[in-house]
Amino acid sequence: MSRASSLHRLQQLELDLEAAQSRLAEIDRRLADSEAVRQATAAHTDAAERVHKARAAARSAELDVESVRQKLTAAEASLYGGTVRNPKELQDLQAECDSLKRHIASLEDHLLERMVEVEELSIKEHSAAKALDDIQALEVTARAGLAGERTTLLARCERLQAECEAALASVSTADTATYRALRLSKGGKAISLLTDDSCGACGLTLAPSIQQTLRSGGDLIRCPQCARILYAG
Predict the structure, then answer these.
(1) Could you tell me the pTM of the whole model?
(2) Apex CA 9: angle with CA 70 and CA 169, to 5°?
(3) What is the pLDDT of residues 114-171, one digit of tens each?
(4) Which contiguous run of DSSP H or E holds residue 199?
């Protein structure tokens, strides 16, 4: 799968997830017509936000560990590679490796704490979701259609969330940062599908050289006009 293809899949999944979440929120608003439902909804929203923040913190901690491990790998390559022979330099490299190992151990402890936090908050979020479902079940008689749709959407959101996380794992940190920035600045659409030799977002007809490079599936190609990442499909 090319870089653009991976990002296009991630965008489609996230757009589908956002659409499902938006519809779910609309249904929740229509169902939340009692104080008990409103309170349960607020509790579930708060719990879900805490889980989201905890997952983001865990991901950040994971990236920190990965970054320091890469530094350690580079330092050990210099230490044991035979290219450095000066005793003082070797001593400094050994000290750097030892320091990096200690730092990694500390970061891994921090990562473990964040992972435990995610697990604990997820349990609370699931409990809040169940409490909300239980309360809404009392009022479902007159709104069976909406309740059924809500159940389907909850399952869809859970599946899409898992697929988003899996898709994100296949994207590099740099590409993720570029994608996130573009989605933020381009109304949620960072990737534009090539349509009839034109950018599907802004309509600019692309030069044949750009189209050829794009279809080769190599580096990320940006639309000269709207700056979105192009995907040939």
Answers:
(1) 0.53
(2) 25
(3) 899 999 999 999 999 999 888 877 766 667 888 888 999 999 999 999 999 999 998 9
(4) strand 198-199
Query: Angle between the 173-185 and 3-31 helix axes, to the nearest 10 degrees?
Result: 50
In order of 73, 195, 201, the CA distances from 108 in angstroms are 16, 46, 43
Q: Can you read off the two tokens belonging to residue 73?
A: 């790998």
d(CA 182, CA 226): 10
CATH architecture for segment(s) 3-173: Orthogonal Bundle (1.10)
**Separation of first and last alpha carbons in the chain:** 11
- List the helix and strand counts (H, then E) for the chain: 6, 3
- Three-state DSSP class for residue 229: strand
| Residue 129: Cβ within 10 Å count | 16
The sheet with strand 229-231 has its strands ordered as 198-199, 191-195, 229-231
Domain residue spans in the chain?
Answer: 3-173
As a whole number of angstroms, the distance between CA 58 and CA 46 comes to 18
Given a contact cutoff of 8 angstroms between Cβ atoms, the answer to whether 198 and 204 are in contact is yes
Q: Beta-strand (E) ranges in 86-155?
A: none
> For residues 214 and 222, is the Cβ–Cβ distance under 8 A?
no
Do residues 100 and 75 touch, judged by C-beta distance below 8 A? yes
Q: What single letter denotes the amino acid at residue 185?
A: S
